[in-house]
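G., before I forget:
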Amino acid sequence: MNLNSIKAIYKFEMARALRTIMQSILAPVLSTSLYFVVFGAAIGSKISTIDTVSYGAFIIPGLVMLSVMTTSVNFAAFGIYLPKYNGSIFELMSAPISAYEIVIGYAGAAASKSILISILILLTSTIFVDFNIKHPLLMLLLLAITSITFSLFGFIIGIWATNFEKLQLIPLIIITPLVFLGGSFYSISMLPELWQLITKFNPIFYIINGFRWSFFGTSDIDLFTSLSFIVVFLFICLAIIGLIFKTGYRIKG
Amino acid sequence: MISVKNLNKIYPDNFYALSNISLDIKQGEVFALLGPNGAGKTTLISSVCGLTKQTSGEIKVSNFDTIKDYKKTRSLIGLVPQEFPLENYESVLNTVNFSRGLFGKKPDENHVKKVLQSLKLWDKKDSPIITLSGGMKRRVLIAKALSHNPKILFLDEPTSGVDIQLRKEMWEMILNLKRSGVTVILTTHYIKEAETIADRIGILNKGELILVENKENLINKFGEKTIIIEFGKKIYKIPKQIRAFDSFITDDNLCLVIKKLKNQKDVNITNIMKVISELEIPIIDIKTEESSLEDIFLDIIN
C-alpha cells in the first residue's frame, strides 16, 4: 500500500475544502439548520410524536442522511472531475499508485468532509431540538459506511461526467428526491397504502431507517435489512470503479 | 534505460498513432524526438508513462515492464506535459509537495526548496498558480516533475511559448540534469533546441520512427555542404569535371553552386578550384554553407 500517495491526495482534497470553507463546510451546515428551524421548531410543534419520538427529533436522522449523501457524492464527484477538467489527472495517471489507492484518497477525503459536516449538523441540531442517541457507536458506524459508499458513488459520477451539468445531474434529480421521498420527514405508516408500497422500492428509505434505528431503537424497518442495502450498494460501487480502472473508461487514451 | 519493442497504438477507427516502434534510450543521454504535428510524439511519451494503453508491444524502463511493474517504472519517471494542467488556485509550494507525495515520497522541505530555487520559483512559493506567467507555470510543471527525484524526465515541448532567455535557461537546466545522470527525453518543434542540447535524435512521422541517429552522425550523414562561387563575368556552362557533382548555375549566370554531402569523400575542393581557375573568369567571392538540422529534418520528412 502506497501510503504516502494516499496521504498526498487526502491532504490535497482536505486543503481544498478548507480553502473554500464557506462553500464546502458552512453552507451545508447552515442550510440543514434551516430545516430544523422550519420543520422541527415551527411545524414540528404542531405535529404529535411518532413512535414516542418528538417530530423535531424524528427528522434529525433523515436530515443528517440527506446531508451525508449529497455532500459525499458532491465532494467525491468534484474531487475527481476537477483534475479531469483542468487536465491535471495526467499526474495521477502517471504516478506509481494503484486504482484503489486513488479511490481511497479521493473517497476517503470526501467521506471525511461529509462526516465532519454531519457532526456539525448534529451539534447544531441540539440548539433547536432535545434528543438522545440510543446507540452512538452504531450511529457512527452507519454514518461512516454511508458516507464512504456515497463517496464511491460520487467518484463514479465524477469519472462519468463530461461537463459540470452532468456532475450535478444525479445528485439533484435522483438522490435529493429519493431522500425526501425516503421517509426523511415522515414515517411510512403515515402514508396511504399505495405510497407505502412505492416507498419500499426506494433504497434510500432503508438507509435512512437504519440510521434512525441507531438514534431511537425503533424505525419502519429492521436494522439488518438496512445494513444489507448499504453493503450491497457499497460493493456495486466498488465493482464499477474496478471496471472503470480496468478499461480506462474516460480517463485513459 | 528505456527499451521499446514493436510498440503499436491503434485507435478503434484503425488509425495507427504508433506503428511498430522499437527504440532504446541510454541512461544519462538527452534524446530529442522530432516530428510534425500528429506524428505520434506525445502518444509515444504517454505510452511509456502509462497515460495511454498500448495496443501491442513491450516497454521496459530500467528492465521493468511498464504494465506489470508500473509502480516501479513510474516512480523513476517525471513528466512535463505540453499544456498547463495545473490547479489554478493552489499555491506553488503545495502543488509541488502534492506531486512529491503522489509519487510515493515522504515530504522533504529541503529537496523541494532546492528544486524551486533552481527554477527561480522560491520567491513565488506561496503564490496561487493563477497569478503566474506562462513561463513560470511551465517551470512549476518542471518543479512538479522533479519533486520526486526522477531518473528519467520527459519534456513534451518544454519551451513552446517561452521567451528566448527562458528557453536558454531551460536548456541549461536540461544539461545540468544530464550532468547529474538524469535521462532526458524531449519532444520539440524547435530544431535548434534539439541541435543544441540533444545527444541523439529520433524522427517520427505518421506514427513511424523513421530515423534514430547520433546528432553529429545525422548532420554528417544527411547534411550538405554548398560551395557558391561568384564570378565577375557571366558563366554559361558548368565545366565537364564538375558536372559529376550536384551543381548548377544561378539564373543571373554569375554564380556556380556546387553541393556535396558532408560524408562524400570523393569531392576534392582543391581539384574543384583548379578546374575553376582554368576557366580564366575572375572570381569575386567564394562562400560555403552547411545545412542545419532543420534542413535535414525537412528533407527527411518530405
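The mean pLDDT of chain A is 87. Residues 3-247 of chain A form one domain.

More on Monday.
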